[in-house]
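Exercise: predict the fold of this chain.
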Amino acid sequence: MPIILHDGQVIAGNHRIAGMLNFTPKSRFAYERAIKEYYHIELKPDELLVRMPSKRLNNTEINNLAASSNQGRFNSESDHAIAVLSHYEAKLKELDQKLDADSIYSLKNIVAKNLNFDKATHPNVGDSNLALLMYNMPRTKTQGIELLNRWQKEFSNDIKSYEKVKKMFVDNAGSFHNLIHDMNFPNVSLNAYLSDIVDRSFANLKNYKARARA
């Protein structure tokens, strides 16, 4: 069922809303009958049934709600990566060059906290660290996004292996960020090689599994 905010913005179910607005008499009849059967609500001819949050949400809460409502519906990995990079990009440009933490777990949460520009109660740790990883590996702006999309397709029959490698890099996005900006290595530009490191990790795993099956 579509989700609509108090200002009328549709954050989940745009295609369903478009379909509802173009009902034929037959499909409108079937829709009204289904709503009455499942929700015990009789709609007027100009009414549609939608969901609305009980309170006003900030931008991150809206993003998280939309993501959870559309979980598994992204057309590709690139759709997800583009969405999170666009969402966090302004704040990524302001991120401190050094993030202090005593563990990878703490560092992931520090990244999420620093990118939580609208102070959501529960920042999205996974998406914020994915955005940081994508932001720090560009030879072109979309190179990391295209890379993940390609390898997701390559591992379409073994998606668990793909997710493990991806998670390893996303979880360490803060560590890569610190290394990229480490002034002890002024002549090394790690972000120029980060996409190659990710690419080769996927390729080596793919080759290993191919040899194991041979």
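Check your answer against the key: Residues 1-56 form one domain.
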